[in-house]
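Input (4-alpha-glucanotransferase):
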Amino acid sequence: MGAGVADDELIRLAGHHRVATRYTDWRGRAADVPPGTLVAVLGALGVDASSPAAVRAELERHQERARTLPPTLVVRSDPGEGRTADRILAKVRRTLRPAGDLDVRIEPGEPDVLAEPSAEQARPVPLDGSEGDVTLGWHRLHVRQGSREESAALLVAPASLPRPPRMWGLTVQLYALRSRGSWGLGDLHDLADLATWAGRDLGAGFVVANPLHAAEPMPPVSPSPYSPMSRRFPAPLYLRIEDMPEYAALPPEGRERFAAMAARLRTLEGPLDRDAVWTAKLEALEAMYRSSPGIRHDPAFAAFRRRHGAALRDFTTWCAISEEQGTTDWRRWPSALQDAHGHAVLDEPRRGARAEFHAWLQWRLDQQLAGAQKAARDAGMPAGIVHDLAVGVAQGSADAWIYRDELASGMSVGAPPDEFNQRGQDWGQPPWRPTTLAADAYVPYREMLAAALRHGGGLRLDHAMQVSRLWWIPEGASPADGTYVGYDRDAMLGCLVWEAHRAGALVVGEDLGTVEPEVRDDLADRGVLGTSLLWFERDAEGRPKPAAQWRDLSLATVGTHDMPPITGFLHGDHIALRDRLGLLTRPLGEETADHREQLAAWLGLLHAEGLLPDPPDDVLRALADGSDAYDRQVVAALHAFLGRTPARLIGVSLADAVGERRTQNQPGTVDEYPNWRVPLADAQGRPVVLDDLVRDAEVRAVLERVSRESS
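Output:
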């Protein structure tokens, strides 16, 4: 691009569009973003920076737009700080900087997403207080300045979510939790049973499940719940077949055949086989759908389709075309089918019948999700099911097809190099385009949040930075050559808080790793809980942080799904695995010594707190000898320690509770390790099914201790 003035202008242009030109790397050093990256990222945002002349033209356009009303305005409602209407007027004036008077009116009551439309006709009202203050929710803002008129979507969001009561709960990878009733993978009936047992018998307040987002509609089914086909809709893979009304309508020989198929799936050993499970379930679902033609005319089914509208139509059409074309990657379809809203897609009636089948699956999923949440609340859980929201979707996915204009083409989300991934990470997921999202009044984002919260008491945001900034990587570039792109955090958080407020739900943000301090402050200010992982909680000197020093507005757990369970961690299984896979970044001896030192420090703190009766040296010697004599004791002590922290939520991984040693996901691998395919098992590798889990005295002892400490 050239040097001097041209580079300065490129840097200025990037700043106007929240594209970072410099960042602080994991070593604490300032790193400059290559000009080529800036040009590519700006291009993906619809900003031409291909030449000095283009940059200057874009700078002039920015100056012209700077004093116009943005397409979406978000204001917080805080009764303690005066009238909301006054804050709206102040924000409008700061934006437009008018020379004279403004006529500002509100058209109240814009419809919410996933809500039945109101029959009432709204009329614009002035902001002079003559008709009361502006209420929470979406409105339409109209501004007149002389002969010029503008309008914008307006969200009045709650100042903050209420603090949830202090409670403990379980975290679970649902697919790994099998029962004698499920078809080889954990399902929504299992989730309901788990919540019922944990809430009614043990006093748990919530269950955090992995993302239940939609996967491929036909095999092969990707194993990662964090790289889905859609975040807007759930996966039919989690349906309990026998709980569906249509199952009873099957002829006896049909039910017998499917029961035999399910029985075979329960005997499968080794890594979880989603392809086998979905192939069998799909056959059963198609038979049930054919045998019950009357469901197509069910008024409740029609109401469900109306509520989910165009998004459901587009998603189910994508499912039908994927089956027709033999691939879910829309980029490999004929060009006429690559436009989700083109005539070739919308004007094919034969495809509509298959799309209706997929809509029926979503309807039944909606009911079973509702059933799981009802079971949790009936068991006394204050929150119930807390759903997990992945940071993005796969490049060739349904959402990437449906929201093609809202996602940045040629870009992928990832992470810059850090201590553990020194080449950086490319997650292969297209990011939202901030300007297009704002122009759409954040509707795709709002629908995604509302759908996730529809049948849950909470939402966990994987990678909480998705509301503030993401690391964008140009196609074909190294993750190290990406840069941060910022989002309107106030707007993103406003949408999140409003949808959670509507649902009466709590929100947890996974704010680990490189997170700007002001983001954590903003999340806490809005009532969004952070995440505290025991192994990462250290003081300024690197020592384990005492319980009293932990933050209160957080979900506290020992580890996460990207880390080994406690028992595996104690024995250094993760080090041996990474060494075998060639993933260590320093010598094995150095890694082992550091691990032993870290473990000794935590065992020492547990002993000093009176939670671990035996001397730490005895435990360390036993571990060095390969003995598991102290494993259960340490697992219980670590969770009891969590109970002594002020954290509002205490999470116990089901894998930790049963003594599982294998990690569910090993970052840095694809096929070298069975990521997301590890069935729940005990320390000896014996499968653990839900039916036996609820009668396991050792598991109950661990959970009851957590319950006592956190009460």
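The domain at 209-403 is CATH 3.20.20.80 (TIM Barrel).
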